[in-house]
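name: query_chain
kind: protein
chains: 1
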Amino acid sequence: MMASYSGIAALPALLLSSVLGNLQQSPVALATVVTAIICYLVGSLNFGVIISRFYGDDIRKHGSGNAGTTNMLRTYGKTAAALTYLGDMTKGVVCVWIGRLIFTYFVAGAYGGYIGAYAALIGHVFPLYFGFKGGKGVATTLGVMLMLDPIVFLIVVLIFVPIVPISGYVSLAAVTGAVGYPVVTLIRQFLAGRVNMIEIGLICVITAMVLYLHRSNIKRLITKTENPVMGKKKTGERKR
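structure:
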């Protein structure tokens, strides 16, 4: 009976040893796991929550309940919002860099930056350090875009950021910018004579993540009950 119990207790260690052994035999898998873990932990540094703690508060208790730049602007003002935006954007840049660095070391792969990007976004939305409740990843996505292709980033920003002052809705700029991201990338690659459909597909995953996280905003934009970036709430608007 004791031998049976000791055998069961040894199973986790055997499984872990098997997994580690398989990872060592597959550099791509090892690079993916290492990148995902590190960048998820970096992505979990949610600057909206961190900065609101300096106010002796938690941004998730206010407004939309979202730990992002827009809610920080409405709740604490421009300085707090700017610092949140800068911090969240920077971690997107850092995670793409980390992904590229790790993949270059293990396999010289070209797509490590995307693994870092996905992990950063997941960490931002579900932060390990803050009860798995974070933001919607717009600033982090912009940091990812900047690092992956600065020219595409600049074009997307110039086209879609003006939507905010024109319409008054940050969510509208975020949604249209996310949709425009792979389109702009495809046009840029086509004009350069080097269309990479794998890369376009990887970017579409980022677009899908942003759209999914903004699904409630999209519904409110359609029903005209979305809250403008600054101003009074629309009648009947639900909490974000």
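note: The two ends are 55 Å apart (CA to CA).
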